[in-house]
Design a protein that fits this description.
- The protein has 25 helices and 5 strands.
- α11 runs antiparallel to α12 (about 345-360), α15 (about 385-400) packs parallel to α17 and α23 (about 545-560) runs parallel beside α25 (about 585-600).
- The chain has a 5-stranded antiparallel sheet.
- The longest helix is centred in the N-terminal third of the chain and has 47 residues, at about 145-195.
- Helix content is about 65%, strand content about 5%.
- β3 and β4 (about 55) form a beta hairpin.
- With about 600 residues, it is mostly helical.
């Protein structure tokens, strides 16, 4: 096998749902391809980093070359994970194990041959160009014309023989030295194989780079990775050591958890110190019931430093500080925000709260069940002319509701019909004024708040919207976001599993004919074009495809579709395709058959 044939697949996009035999992955994930296991030209059989065997669509991946040593290591890791569930493995998995084992044997054999050839080339004795030269027959027959000349030639010949003998001896000594060095190197390599990299070593390297250079934790990890790659290229006979350290670097989260008793973080010390100072400031102002305005620069500096550490430091360290003592630091910031009247400090606290929401999902839950949502809702309504403050308040409020978690009952005392009317009204106003950023945040609050309502019939957001005569910006923006497959509520990296807020809002709206009437006919036709395209392109079993089927069912059921029948032929083709798939999804098939029965006059031929 040539080195150009050694590659892995790297994911170009996320694939979050699909058939049970299809692997789920994120962009950048790598897979080991298994040759000769797939009969479908559009799918590859692969093993992912967890040792799970499944199908991957070729359109979602690209080839990435890797070294033989790294590929062997990946195969070893995959085989180890595959053998864990050996009592209950499937026929496909057994075939994969057989292929990987065979591939590993071939690679090791190929690698050993190259090493052997290299050693043989190094040990080969070069031809000595200075060896004594035997005279030709013609020269041997020539008479000696001058005895002095003959004596001189004899002396030269003796000198050459001595010189050549010395050179030969020197060369032999050098060869013996080289052989000795090679033997020593092999012995050293064998001893390296037995060397265990301490768990604390790589985390300590990253921490030292972060502390000394002040660059972020992620950049510090990248720097250490570059250094290890350089060592791997420059000192290849220690490749096992460098690859072990690189593995520890890629699995740093688990390694750091083990090594945290040894590796102490400077960021953790600084955060605890800032927290202590803010606690004193808060209690000092609380006791006097008025702020000492001269401390504004001090508190502002502490909040800025705290935010920078949360952004740049090791997430494991910062999460540990945040979660300490049942989120004591989060509760302190909420209390401080509630009692702090100064705008500049309030905005900086909002910055910090937004940053820590990204670090830990528990922070979002903590904020949702605090007084902060009510405080933010009041801020938005009372200070809407202050665009800077409103921008940050609306953004944080949308983040707090973006998980779809049900808020406490007291939340509805503040975020009620009056508040929602205000949000819908201001959404249309800011769109006319051209303030897109605040408008996007207002829409995000509405979409995010709608996520936790399970029944459209008991949804205060939809009840409020029914009282509106028009919602042009809202409806146009919903179609735009759906077409672009964008979800403004997906702002947290650890919140990918939540329902798409735009899709849920559309499905909920189309449950009621009076809400469908808010859309122009042209918008409905554009929506049908989007639905047909997505039903054609999406993979079987993807949740989005089932969502589009739910949406089109509500549209057919609650709108005046019979007046225009736009994309009827396209829908018929999509339904036929879903029913004739090689790996059909049961929920999709059930929904299509229900629609075919309910709207028999339109889908009688499928």
């Amino acid at each position: 096998m040539s080195e150009t044939d050694i590659f892995v697949y790297s994911a170009l996009y996320d694939l979050s749902s699909g058939h049970k035999q299809v692997l789920l992955f994120n962009k950048g994930d790598r897979f080991i391809p298994i040759p000769n296991c797939s009969s479908n030209p559009n799918w590859a059989v692969c093993v992912d980093k967890k040792g799970i065997v499944g199908y991957v669509p070729y359109t979602y991946v690209e080839k990435k070359q890797v070294s033989i040593q790294e590929f062997i290591w990946l195969i070893d890791d995959a085989l180890e994970k595959l053998h864990v569930d050996s009592p209950s493995i499937s026929k496909l998995t057994r075939e994969v194990i057989k292929n990987l084992t065979s591939l590993r044997t071939n690679l090791l054999s190929s690698n050993n041959c190259k090493i052997k050839e290299t050693k043989e080339e190094n040990n080969e004795i070069p031809v000595n160009n200075n060896s004594p030269v035997v005279d030709s027959p013609q020269e041997a027959l020539n008479p000696v014309l001058n005895s002095n000349e003959s004596h001189g030639s004899s002396n030269n010949l003796v000198g050459k023989i001595v010189e050549n003998a010395e050179e030969s001896k020197t060369q032999e000594s050098a060869e013996n030295s080289a052989l000795k060095t090679t033997a020593q190197t092999e012995t050293q390599t064998e001893s390296i194989n037995d060397f265990n990299v301490p768990n604390w070593l790589v985390p300590a390297l990253v921490e030292n780079v972060r502390h000394k250079t002040k660059i972020s934790h992620e950049n510090s990890k990248a720097a250490v990775g570059i250094i290890l790659d350089t060592f791997l290229d420059a000192i290849p006979h220690l490749d096992i050591l460098w690859l072990r350290m690189k593995k520890n670097l890629t699995e740093s989260e688990a390694i750091e958890e083990v090594a945290k008793e040894v590796v102490h973080s400077e960021d953790q010390r600084k955060l605890l110190d800032i927290f202590k100072q803010l606690w004193y400031c808060k209690n000092d102002e609380q006791q006097r019931s008025w702020p000492v305005h001269e401390d504004e620069d001090l508190i502002s500096g502490l909040l800025v430093e705290m935010n920078n550490i949360f952004i740049d430091a090791n997430p494991r360290v910062t999460r540990e500080v945040i979660c300490h003592d049942e989120y004591e630091m989060v509760n302190l910031l909420v209390t401080y925000y509630q009692m702090e009247p100064r705008k500049t400090l309030r905005i900086k606290m909002l910055h910090v709260l937004l940053t820590i929401c990204e670090l830990d999902m528990g922070v979002v839950t903590q904020l949702l069940n605090s007084v902060l949502p009510m405080e933010l809702a009041r801020d938005i309504q009372d200070n809407f002319e202050d665009s800077d403050k409103v921008f940050h308040s609306t953004f944080l409020l949308s983040v707090i509701f973006s998980t779809g978690e049900k808020p406490p009952t007291g939340t509805y005392d503040f975020i009620n019909k009056k508040c929602l009317h205000f949000l819908f009204e201001k959404l249309e106003d800011v769109a006319k004024d051209g303030d897109e950023d605040v408008g996007q945040n207002l829409l995000s609050i509405i979409l995010a708040f709608n996520l936790h309502f399970e029944s459209p019939q008991e949804n205060i957001v939809l009840e409020t919207l029914k009282e509106k005569q028009s919602a042009q910006y809202l409806t146009e923006r919903l179609i735009f976001l759906l077409n672009r497959e964008e979800d403004p509520c997906k702002v947290l990296s650890h919140n990918k599993g939540t329902t798409n807020s735009v899709m849920k809002f559309m499905v909920d709206m189309f449950t009621f004919p009076e809400l469908i009437d808010l859309f122009y006919l042209n918008d409905i036709k554009v929506l049908l074009d989007i639905i047909v395209r997505q039903l054609t392109d999406l993979l079987p079993g993807e949740k989005k495809r089932l969502d589009y089927l739910c949406l089109v069912r509500n549209l057919l059921r609650n709108s005046n579709y019979e007046e225009h029948l736009h994309q009827l032929e396209g829908l018929q083709k999509c339904f036929k395709f879903i029913l004739s798939q090689e790996f059909p999804d049961e929920d999709e098939v059930t929904l299509v058959l229900e629609m075919a029965y309910e709207f028999r006059s339109w889908f009688k031929n499928i």
